[in-house]
Write a structure and sequence with these properties.
The structure holds 2 protein chains of 2 kinds. By secondary structure, chain A is α+β, with helices and mostly antiparallel strands. Chain A is built from 4 helices and 3 strands. Chain A has one domain (about 1-105): Arc Repressor Mutant, subunit A (Orthogonal Bundle). Chain A has helices spanning about 1-20, 30-40, 50-60, 85-110; strands at about 25-30, 65-70, 75-80. The two termini of chain A are about 25 Å apart. Chain B has 3 domains: about 10-80, no CATH class; about 90-145; about 145-295, no CATH class. Helices cover about 75% and strands about 0% of the residues of chain B. Classes of the chains: A alpha+beta, B mainly alpha.
Chain lengths: ~110, ~300
């Protein structure tokens, strides 16, 4: 049960992180993983094994779409961009997570620890 | 210092995903690209080749579990793509704008054809139908599978562009919209002088752009090199099918003997309207056929 909750939290936070990044600009998988790592100072890490199933799942839902194009070095990379449907998901997801942290804070006082 | 051998990431990933035959070539290419970047990132640090390889492969603990998860997602996606072929699941814009407009224009074109009036309007309505059909397909872009986005859509865009070009030339260069097409096909000698020559040369130059358009769209749609070639040369392939299939069928079923009695004309027609345009289309497609080592199958 604990594992399942942890897995769902990881997945949910991963979706929000990816949608937020892609709302700024289209990125390919490695860039997504690297930026999440840099911006969270390593607190959130995506490996190949955790990133792509999530990206394909989000693509299946129509939140993101991938297109092959050349990167700055002239190599073909699959760039993901946010779809209108994905953009609509972003605000409610952020709200959901804000409420979650507030609830957790009220319960445990974790943010003041 | 000897140049170090670059690992063949495609092959390495393919071997590890071997048990999962449902993993598409695009998935293999994407995962290989990711591993390559992790490896090169490690190499730009202080890691040795062996250490960089270890860091790259530490990205995945269980390849079979990963393959199974990707296969599950992708098979559901394919299944959704197949389900999306029905009317109910089409987008609102397709159902309320594109399809009704196509139906009306197609009806107008058929009516004009039936009463044998306004040849220019007939062709215009059918070409507009093709353009609107492409708009409808673009509206369904999120539901397209790889073959549609990398082959059929770019191919039909290229074909539509080639048809529009011919139509525009006929409007600009001739009063009778069927004159030059017929004239050039039946009297190839006209190609060396006068308006037919300019008609044909301009059209051929346009084919370069059409081929480029098809290959570019195919590349953006994730098409492999062979798919880009087919998408770029699509108008010529259609013409070849028309010449090579429709004319013999017409001869057999409608006893149309013109092709049988003039086989050299038929061959010349194929050269003029399919083979030479194919070369022009492929010339245009050529800049978009370059493929990185990662995308090569």
């Amino acid at each position: 049960m604990t594992q399942r909750i942890r897995s769902q939290i990881t997945r949910g936070s991963g979706e929000l992180a990816i949608l937020s990044l892609l709302s700024e600009q289209p990125l390919y998988g490695f860039e997504i993983a690297k930026r999440i790592d840099e911006r969270t100072s390593g607190a959130m890490k995506f490996t190949l094994a955790s990133l792509y199933p999530l990206l394909y799942e989000m693509e299946k839902r129509g939140w993101v779409e991938g297109r092959w194009q050349a990167n700055h070095a002239g190599r073909d990379r699959r760039y993901y961009r946010l779809t209108p449907s994905g953009r609509k998901q972003l605000a409610p997801l952020k709200e959901e997570w804000r409420n979650f942290f507030q609830a957790l804070d009220a319960l445990t006082g974790v943010s003041h620890a | 210092m000897p140049e170090r051998m670059k690992p063949d990431w495609m092959q390495l990933v393919r071997e590890r995903l071997a048990a999962s035959r449902s993993c598409h070539q695009d998935v293999v290419a994407e995962l290989a690209a990711h591993l390559e970047e992790v490896y090169e990132d490690a190499r730009t640090g202080t890691s040795s080749d062996a250490e960089a390889m270890r860091i790259a492969f530490a990205q995945v603990d269980d390849w079979q579990a990963l393959a199974a998860e990707i296969a599950r997602t992708k098979s559901e996606e394919d299944s959704m793509n197949h389900q999306s072929m029905n009317f109910q699941s089409m987008s609102h814009r397709t159902k309320t704008v594109w399809l009704p407009a196509i139906a009306v224009l197609f009806g107008v074109g058929l009516l004009l054809l039936f009463v044998d009036r306004a040849a220019v309007l007939q062709r215009l309505s059918f070409i507009a139908c093709m353009a609107l059909l492409l708009c409808a397909v673009a509206s369904e872009a999120n539901r397209m599978n790889l073959r549609t986005s990398s082959l059929w859509l770019p191919g039909f865009v290229s074909l539509t562009a080639a048809s529009l070009l011919m139509f525009a030339e006929e409007i600009m260069l001739a009063r009778d919209p069927s004159f030059y097409f017929t004239d050039v096909s039946l009297r190839p000698g006209h190609l060396i002088s006068g308006l037919p020559r300019w008609f044909y040369i301009l059209w051929l130059l346009g084919q370069v752009l059409c081929g480029a358009l098809g290959a570019l769209l195919s590349r953006r749609g994730g098409g492999a090199r062979a798919t880009r070639v087919v998408a770029g040369a699509f108008p010529a392939l259609v013409m070849f099918l028309l010449c090579g299939l429709v004319i013999p069928v017409s001869a057999i079923f409608e006893h149309n003997t013109i092709a049988a009695s003039h086989p050299s004309r038929l061959a010349l027609g194929i050269v003029i309207w399919a083979a030479v345009p194919a070369v022009a289309l492929l010339l245009g497609a050529a800049p978009f056929l370059k493929e990185s080592t990662l995308r090569q199958a």
